[in-house]
User: Fold this.
Amino acid sequence: MTALAPYALGLFILLAYTLEAVTGFGSIVIALSLGALLLPIDQLLPVLVPLNIGMTGYLAWQHRAQIDLTLLLGSILPGMLVGTLLGYWLLPWLDAGLLKRGFGVLILWFAGRELWRLRRASTLPQRPAWLTRLITLGAGLSHGLFASGGPLLVFGLTGTHLDKARLRATLVSVWFTLNSLLTLAFLLDGRLIPALPQVLGYAPLLLLGVWFGERLHRRFDERHFRIAIYILLLATGILLLAPWRLP
Assistant:
């Protein structure tokens, strides 16, 4: 790492966590994609995942009245928990580079499709329950591999017609639960303790991210909120497919 790399990573973290405070997802996948230009992914995750707990825990508590508990406990968390555990278990045996590129292609397809649909003002088809559960399982698998299940979960939730406040509150509750589980796993496998100085050093950026994000969230109307999510996903997909790395 160069002397400026820790400051660059701090800027990436501030941007990513501001965006998650606005939309309810995206902090780790954005910070991970940008941070991977500086550090290996396996060194970034033990820093980014515990940081995410602080922010999502605060937002989940602050907006707890807007959480859709029926959807969260009945449809989302069971599949996400199973998928996350499976992804964490499979990671050492899988080609992370190939998975990352495949994930980027999937995100680009989804974001492009949804932006085209919004432009054409077309309605969403009703998705069968089994397909939603399968997508949720895939989102959990992605979360176990990259701590980045948000894009697939948002895809799985299209058609549920949650407004922006309920969608954000429900999503941050998912990430708080799953990232608490991943942090415990990092503690048990020995990766958390060496990362704690960086976690504590970057923690003040969460306060700024939440402060900026809460204000931006209130300024978005429903349509602009959806467009912002899909543009965020397009940028994420491009970053995941980018072949370059800084020396």
Summary: The mean pLDDT is 80. DSSP finds eleven helices and no strands in the chain.
